[in-house]
Amino acid sequence: xxxxxxxxxxxxxxxxxxxxxxxxxxxxxxxxxxxxxxxxxxxxxxxxxxxxxxxxxxxxxxxxxxxxxxxxxxxxxxxxxxxxxxxxxxxxxxxxxxxxxxxxxxxxxxxxxxxxxxxxxxxxxxxxxxxxxxxxxxxxxxxxxxxxxxxxxxxxxxxxxxxxxxxxxxxxxxxxxxxxxxxxxxxxxxxxxxxxxxxxxxxxxxxxxxxxxxxxxxxxxxxxxxxxxxxxxxxxxxxxxxxxxxxxxxxxxxxxxxxxxxxxxxxxxxxxxxxxxxxxxxxxxxxxxxxxxxxxxxxxxxxxxxxxxxxxxxxxxxxxxxxxxxxxxxxxxxxxxxxxxxxxxxxxxxxxxxxxxxxxxxxxxxxxxxxxxxxxxxxxxxxxxxxxxxxxxxxxxxxxxxxxxxxxxxxxxxxxxxxxxxxxxxxxxxxxxxxxxxxxx
Amino acid sequence: xxxxxxxxxxxxxxxxxxxxxxxxxxxxxxxxxxxxxxxxxxxxxxxxxxxxxxxxxxxxxxxxxxxxxxxxxxxxxxxxxxxxxxxxxxxxxxxxxxxxxxxxxxxxxxxxxxxxxxxxxxxxxxxxxxxxxxxxxxxxxxxxxxxxxxxxxxxxxxxxxxxxxxxxxxxxxxxxxxxxxxxxxxxxxxxxxxxxxxxxxxxxxxxxxxxxxxxxxxxxxxxxxxxxxxxxxxxxxxxxxxxxxxxxxxxxxxxxxxxxxxxxxxxxxxxxxxxxxxxxxxxxxxxxxxxxxxxxxxxxxxxxxxxx
Lengths: 441, 308
Fold this sequence. Notes:
The complex is a heterodimer.
Chain A: H1 8-24, E1 41-47, H2 50-57, H3 59-66, E2 69-75, H4 77-90, E3 97-101, H5 102-112, H6 119-123, H7 139-145, E4 155-167, H8 168-173, H9 182-192, E5 200-203, H10 212-221, H11 238-253, H12 264-272, E6 276-282, E7 301-305, E8 315-324, H13 331-341, H14 344-353, E9 357-358, H15 361-364, H16 367-371, H17 377-388, E10 390-392, H18 400-415, H19 420-440
Parallel strand pairs in A: 1-2, 1-3, 5-6, 8-10
Antiparallel strand pairs in A: 3-8, 4-6, 4-7, 4-8, 4-9
Helix pairs in contact in A: 1-14, 10-11, 18-19
Chain B: H1 2-9, H2 23-48, E1 50-52, E2 58-60, H3 64-68, H4 73-105, H5 111-118, H6 120-123, H7 126-137, H8 143-150, H9 162-191, H10 195-202, H11 207-236, H12 239-244, H13 256-266, H14 270-307
Antiparallel strand pairs in B: 1-2
Helix pairs in contact in B: 2-14, 4-9, 4-11, 4-13, 9-11, 11-14, 13-14
């Protein structure tokens, strides 16, 4: 979808120089033996997303490079997660390569041992290009990809930082500037709100489950966390409650009515109309905002790093990775595919189309790559700024979905008048046995 | 008839050999029913007695999953939501379906064409309908609030507010399934003889009296059929709710079906999910028995009426 706009020329101009190092094989020494597994046929299971689109679009290049045939399918996120889990449980998955959402599945995949250990492959110069090193991935990426023993179980593919989209026109009209801390953010949001002409200062997800990252963004700013070092829940501690209070205040006082049912798409359409001052959400939702056929605010959008909280500045971070099924019989070939997927060339394409952000610093900090990005410079700045304050936006536990549902319900209840402290206490009590059960089994 | 003929033929010694019984003919049906109905049910019962998660191990826990149910506020809420939703989603289409059946039973120009248009919602895919309605429900951008504003009613929050979400969902369900009720009742109306109306006219009954004392009692069996079909449909309703609200805001529109889906396929807690399914099954059976009992009563009235 988003990547279709990229022309061959842009790619050449922007990233060939960088990509050539990784792929085209200019340095003759220590180059992986790409052709070693020629003739192998790989099955690839991808999440339907701009990331999956980019991989499918250029799959032929991978085949040209390696002689490995790729059959890939893209499935909508929720269904893909279910399918992957069911197939991996069966012990005979139909795919060799699997695309996973770290923030939901990391712990589950790790505990079940579904993914092959990629550490030996990464150390093998016959299999790995010299520029692919652990150190090149951002810390959040490594945190996601490594298991408790420090083995790489997947390659970090695309990261999602939460940023604030803001409407420069509305801010200007009120003589406001982009907030630097939570207090200013609330003030700006409330100053911009004027229900009589349908203008609201702030919008973010109110829908249960989807809304947890919004609260997490606040909680992290108050210095809170989800679990302590021993795995005890911290979701009813003062920081968490402060986060929920801020959530309640912004979404009831400064957000459009009905926000309790909003997921990102409703937030996005509200923001696209030019009647909303700020929208807090993932960085990947930017392309439609700059698309004149869909947006009334092209060129008027500011992209800001999450304002600083009383204790910390933190950008809630999520991400997906790509790994090799432990049950696959073609692990090396599958690893080559994963490596290609996170290569500089492919990462640059992803970033330039605005469809995702690579975990690799060498791509993000490359001037040439940045120059080819189609999004406004402020977007890239926000991405780079968020990378510096990146924190995991969800707890690394198995029942993430239940966590999101239960905490999310509590948050939604605060929007219809529930007391944040009571609601979070109740939700924490409700989630505790679920967490205990999951760790016990 | 055939069995009777066969047993009659038996004593006569015309055929020298007979198969001992007819059970081989029943076998395909038995196998199919066991495989697709009995086995899944027994297996669900079996799973409901285990702590069983996808990707984890399973262990026998007896009735522990069932004992979790009473203490699970989400389950209790889901039962209430399911009943609330079902009652509304049965009553509204029945009332509106009766009204529209009476209207479309009358003769007027273009009746066939208008009937055709009226049943069109039934033919659309529920998920597609749900997506369109979601847009129409949008509090700021939706057409429904625009229409309300034309007649001076302040904007509503529809599915975006816990208090109004279930009635709003029922609105969609009603819009889609009233035509089905109407079709069933039109068939019923066509079957009512003209004589009672003629004698009622002679006795000086007005239209309301004719409807109340002739049409409605004679339609009762058909109304019951429609009610049973609607109840089953409303209880198992999933697609519209899932596509519009996913059970939200919060859990305000989470029916048993949606909760069951989350537990089994999002939390991968197969054991507990199975226990919910078993309880849900019991609820459906209970309601069906109730409706069938009511149906017996409507039949009784009909026969009583005929005996008079």
